[in-house]
Amino acid sequence: MLAHRFGFRAARQAAVVPALGASRSFGASACRRDATGAPKNDGDAALLASIKAGLKDAMRSKDSVTSTVLRSVLSDHQYTTLSTSPTSLSSILQKGISKRTEAATQFRSASRADLAEQEEREAEILAKFLPQQLSLDEVEAAVRTALDKLKHEGKVDLANAKKALGSLIKETNASVDKSRTSGKVVSEVCSKVLASL
C-alpha cells in the first residue's frame, strides 16, 4: 500500500516538474520584461554564459569547491531576477568577493589559516569572472571628471559636504563600468577628492 502511494506521488511529481522547469530556468529565457513586454537586456548575458561554462568545466573535472561557488552565484542571480529590484551579475560577484575577503581576514585574526585559505580560494574563483578592475588612479580620474561636470552644470554645492558627496558618487557611478570597480572604492575616492579641495 505504501509503495503504491509513493509510486503515485513520484509519478505525479514527474508530470509537474518538467512544466515548472521550463518556466523557471536559468539564463536569458528567465530575463525580466519591461513595460512593453519586450525582454530587458541586462548586459550580463556574456558573463552568465561564462559562469555556466565554468560550472560545467568544474563539474566535469570534479572540482567541488569551484562548482559550489559558481552554483551559489547562479542561485543569487536567479533570486535577484525574480525580485522587484534585480542586481547585476557583476555586483553579485563583487559582493561575493568582498564577503569572502572579509571572512578570510577575520579567520586569520582568529588563527584559522585553513579556513582563511578556503575563503581566499573562493574569492579567487569569483575574481576570474570579473573583467580587469580599474586602478585607483583611473577611478580618481573618473571622479574628477564627474566633479568638473557637476561644477559646470551647477549641480554641486561644495558648502554642504554630505550633499556634495552624494551628488558626486551618483554622477561617478553613472559614468564608470560597475563591473570594473566597487561602490565602496568609488565612495572612498569621492571622499578623498572632496577632502582635498
From TrEMBL:
Q: Report TM segments.
A: none
| Gene3D superfamilies, per database record | 1.10.10.410, Uncharacterised protein YqeY/AIM41 PF09424, N-terminal domain (1.10.1510.10)
What are the entry keywords?
Mitochondrion
Location in the cell reads:
Mitochondrion
Pfam families attached here? YqeY (PF09424)
What are the annotated GO cellular component locations? Answer: mitochondrion
| A Gene Ontology molecular function term of the record | carbon-nitrogen ligase activity, with glutamine as amido-N-donor
ATP-binding listed as a keyword: no
The protein's predominant localisation is: mitochondrion
State the family it belongs to.
Belongs to the AIM41 family.
Protein name, UniProt field: Altered inheritance of mitochondria protein 41
Q: Organism classification, top ranks?
A: Eukaryota, Fungi, Dikarya, Basidiomycota, Ustilaginomycotina
